[in-house]
Backbone:
């Protein structure tokens, strides 16, 4: 009688091997092979998959925050480089940028000058560009987006302000609020990226990092940890950027002003 | 993210668009971690593998063929990163790993707990973990893919870049070592 090896029986256990039918018939008539197979199957059945530690919905974002500053150079072939240079999106972006420059030049020559009291930070300037682009295109969906982003920034500002002024101890309420804002922030940032506004996306990105830090801190936070969060918000001038951008988006879109005039607030805020 | 969207995101990521790559990271990180943990059996090592795999994927995106499935391609990178990490740990700790099954399976007598100290399932788990630690990185990877991940031998070959014989041999050796390690428990049951 031809017996099967342990390796054959292992493959059989896993549903592999080319002689499965033969093994099946053999096991019915050979006690020795059947015993060996029982032993192999019994052992392997004992080995359950290890329980994988849970990772939350925000895990992907946490991983991204860890690696984003260490992204290496991509290996690229000559074709890939050429394709990258000639890709339609880039050409379209270049054309759009050229049109904007020309439009801005003509507008500057024709329209009377206005005093500009906007602080010289890049985010509001790009928000203005975004607004002009959208106004020119007459895209109502994008207008709604702008208003939504401004609202989102207002809500985020309130959370950040709460954190900056929170008494030491429990920040559970702020954390829940920040958690709610986090998902929306990611969507708006992606929309800003899609609209080609890197600087707007950049501020939303900074905001997202702070929100993430707040969400992942212990709710009974120590004074030192809270101070560290505040220092980082402060160092990034985040409140300032958020306020100024929100103001700018509202001004450009002609949306109703909030009860508190933001421009006056923003000028008081210094990093 | 549907197939069309994924293709568009991938195309942008391949052009070096880090925001597009971010979308991929956010989508795949949890599954990457799951595989990395099963491969390494250690949370911290799994985190290291997650990071290294994603950085490696970003660097090699130009090699990714758009007709392939990104998840499968990334899976392969994670499996190989896990093997690399296990190999480097092995080298670092300078563990002399004998090929003898007996040597590999020896557990200190004092470590064997009585029934009052531990349930049988915990004891099985302990012995399985001890036995898995004694496997070579390739054996462990092949066994993980076959046993936990349900991958066929052909898929293991493709994932780990092995020939059929090498893949089978790795699984067989792993199973033999585990059988030796778990034999005392098996005889208790029977």
Residues:
């Amino acid at each position: 009688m031809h017996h099967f090896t342990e390796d054959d029986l292992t493959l059989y256990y896993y549903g592999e091997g080319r002689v499965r039918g033969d093994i099946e018939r053999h096991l019915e008539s050979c006690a020795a092979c059947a015993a060996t197979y029982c032993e192999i199957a019994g052992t392997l059945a004992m080995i359950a998959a290890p329980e994988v530690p849970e990772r939350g919905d925000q895990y992907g974002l946490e991983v991204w925050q860890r690696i984003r500053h260490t992204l290496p150079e991509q290996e690229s072939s000559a074709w890939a480089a050429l394709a990258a240079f000639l890709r339609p999106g880039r050409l379209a972006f270049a054309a759009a940028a050229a049109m904007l420059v020309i439009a801005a030049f003509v507008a500057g020559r024709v329209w009377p000058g206005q005093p500009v009291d906007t602080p010289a930070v890049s985010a509001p300037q790009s928000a203005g560009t975004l607004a002009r682009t959208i106004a020119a295109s007459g895209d109502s969906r994008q207008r709604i987006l702008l208003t939504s982003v401004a609202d989102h920034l207002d809500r985020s500002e309130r959370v950040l302000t709460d954190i900056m002024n929170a008494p030491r101890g429990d920040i559970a309420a702020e954390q829940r609020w920040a958690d709610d804002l986090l998902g929306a922030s990611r969507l708006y940032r992606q929309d800003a990226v899609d609209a080609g506004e890197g600087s707007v996306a950049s501020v939303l990105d900074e905001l997202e990092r702070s929100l993430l830090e707040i969400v992942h801190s212990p709710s009974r936070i120590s004074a030192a940890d809270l101070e560290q969060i505040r220092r980082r918000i402060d160092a990034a001038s985040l409140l300032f950027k958020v306020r100024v951008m929100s103001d700018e988006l509202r001004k450009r879109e002609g949306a109703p002003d909030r009860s508190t005039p933001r421009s006056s607030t923003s000028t008081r805020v210094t990093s | 993210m549907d197939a069309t969207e994924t293709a568009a995101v991938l195309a942008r990521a391949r052009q070096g668009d880090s925001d597009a790559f971010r979308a991929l990271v956010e989508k795949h990180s949890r599954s990457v971690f799951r595989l990395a943990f099963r491969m390494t059996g250690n949370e911290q090592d799994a985190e290291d593998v997650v990071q290294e795999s994603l950085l490696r994927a970003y660097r090699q995106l130009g090699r990714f063929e758009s007709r392939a499935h990104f998840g499968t391609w990334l899976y392969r990178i994670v499996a190989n990163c896990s093997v690399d990490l296990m190999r480097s740990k092995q080298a670092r700790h300078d563990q002399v790993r004998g090929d003898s099954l007996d040597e590999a399976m020896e557990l200190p007598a004092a470590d064997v707990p009585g029934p009052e100290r531990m349930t049988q399932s915990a004891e099985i788990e302990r012995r399985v973990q001890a036995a898995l630690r004694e496997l070579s990185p390739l054996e462990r990877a092949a066994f993980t893919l076959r046993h936990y991940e349900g991958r066929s031998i052909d898929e293991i070959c493709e994932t780990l870049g092995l020939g059929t014989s090498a893949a089978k041999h790795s699984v067989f050796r792993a199973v033999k070592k585990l059988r030796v390690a778990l034999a005392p428990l098996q005889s208790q049951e029977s």
